[in-house]
Amino acid sequence: MFKVFFQTVTALLCFLVFFRCASAQIIPKKESVEKKKESSVIVGAERLDLLLPLIKGKSIGIVSNHTGRVGSGGTLLPDTLLSLGQRVVRLFSPEHGFRGTADAGAKVKNIIDKETGLPPVVSLYGDKKKPNKQQLKNIEILLFDLQDVGTRFYTYISTLHYIMEAAAEEKIPVIILDRPNPNDFIDGPILTPSCRSFIGMHPIPILHGLTVGELALMINGEQWLSPKGLQCDLTIIPVSGWKHGDSYPLPTPPSPNLKTDNALRLYPSLCFFEATIMSVGRGTNDPFTCIGYPDKKMGNYSFIPLSQVGATAPKHEGKRCYGEDFSTNYAIKGLSLSPLLEYYKKTKSLGYTLINRKRTFDLLAGSSSLREQLNKGWSEHQIRASWEKDLVQYRILHARYLIYDGKYGIKKREVSTPPIVNK
């Protein structure tokens, strides 16, 4: 099937154009002779006509997982490339493992992937989160294909950072196979240096409004790799048929506890509760759509967390939790502080302390300010006002790295000529 797809698309596309910026190349989107429907989204991994010439004859390392699917059949990227005779020599996996079933935060060991038969999948969410020189040995090019969810604390973009850093040190080119951002908003406080961690590595807001490819350009361009000045040899294969502001229902859940579009929509607002006494529904069929605690006074909605794949020891396991179902009660788009403010007041009135993991809460928020503002009884309007100056500066920075047209009102980058086929 992919062979036919490749031959067809190749016949329609007659040249490649690359855009170079901050040590990066972007292969621009091009219109086919026969225009596709506006709703048709072709992700970077499906643009084999652009990818295959760049990797032909090279030893390939792939950073991906179960979200790196190609075509309507849903074949994983390594399987697709192996079937086309490409030399895939090593796989790297992020949090949740290569097949996407490990618990959040669980250390993932190096394992043999039975379906590809390749050498052990190198876990980038175990004792070490950055590949070492030995693990990159004999790799001539690295492909990065992970479906991100658009939030600073979702760790796939931290894995991106370390891959770029390690590749830059070993002088290995990286190709980002871009995918849409399903939470395409700019909102929330900017991360401060004191709260830099694997759940937040960059001075960006909670909702950063970038695709993985655009963020990679920002990391390179702002010299956020270590040591300062280090840059990755970067190529972006962009999405076709998507622009900023377009919705994008994910074809594959990005992790075990983001099972639905509702969960994805609510995740930026409910993730704060991970650092509280409340359960976010891990161990149920609908995690990140509700919150609850084993006290009937917390609300009318109830659920019982039970051990299951991706949540083997959920908070309040086996206890009936009472709280609220946000999937139907809240039309949240972007980031809302309403659930946090509501339950901060409710738990206080019932004699509970909501935030029981202060450091984790600060890492999620990006600083200690939000927790302190809650303690002082600030309103959502007051809290948001405290972010605005930083967000104005971020929007200026953000505009420099956009690849796609859309709601941000920034003109698409001009493509440089003559075309650069490869370095």
Give a quick rundown of the structure.
This protein has 423 residues and is an alpha/beta fold.
Q: What is the approximate shape? A: globular
What level of helicity do the residues show?
25-40%
Number of strands: 15
Share of residues in strands: 5-15%
Let me know the largest β-sheet.
Answer: 8 strands, mixed
Strand order of the largest sheet: 1-2-12-9-8-3-6-7
Mean pLDDT across residues: 85
End-to-end separation in angstroms reads 31 Å
Give the oligomeric state.
single chain
Radius of gyration equals: 22 Å
Top keywords for this entry?
11 helices; alpha/beta; 26% helix; 423 residues; disordered N terminus
Question: What does this 3D model show about the protein?
Answer:
By secondary structure, this protein is an alpha/beta fold. Helices cover 26% and strands 13% of the residues. It is built from 11 helices and 15 strands. The strands form 4 sheets. The chain has an 8-stranded mixed sheet with strand order 1-2-12-9-8-3-6-7, sandwiched between helices. Helix 4 crosses helix 5. The longest helix has 20 residues, at 380-399. The two termini are 31 Å apart. Residues 1-22, 30-39, 100-110 and 411-423 have low confidence and may be disordered.
